[in-house]
Specification:
6-stranded antiparallel β-sheet, globular, Jelly Rolls, single chain, 105 residues
């Protein structure tokens, strides 16, 4: 299990999780190179939290062959969850740098 340095929020995650250092635009899940949307029999959800000590991030989704769709912004320490069905990626952008902890369940 990989527990983040961020403390109490991540200490409650008992599933395997991963961290992405976001500088510029990075994919939290998926890729711009995926040519078809991915569908799951059972709904998967990407839960992610911006670093308590990082910078604000802008995040959104991508469908294969489409333009990125910006959903919103997360400030330091904020969480959000996004269903992954029929997408090719979930991205985050940060002007400076922030670490985003992710969990798929």
């Amino acid at each position: 299990m990989n527990l983040s340095r961020q403390g109490t929020g991540y200490g409650r995650w008992f599933e395997p999780n991963y961290e992405i250092k976001v500088r510029g635009t990075m994919f939290l899940w998926g890729s711009a190179g995926i040519k078809a949307n991915i569908a799951f029999d059972k709904q998967l959800v990407l839960h992610f939290q911006n670093d308590l000590f990082g910078e604000a991030i802008t995040f959104g989704t991508l469908k294969a062959g489409g333009e990125p769709e910006t959903i919103g912004t997360l400030q330091r320490g904020e969480f959000v969850s996004i269903p992954l069905n029929d997408l090719s990626g979930v991205f985050a952008t940060c002007e400076q740098e922030s670490i985003v902890c992710c969990l798929i369940k």
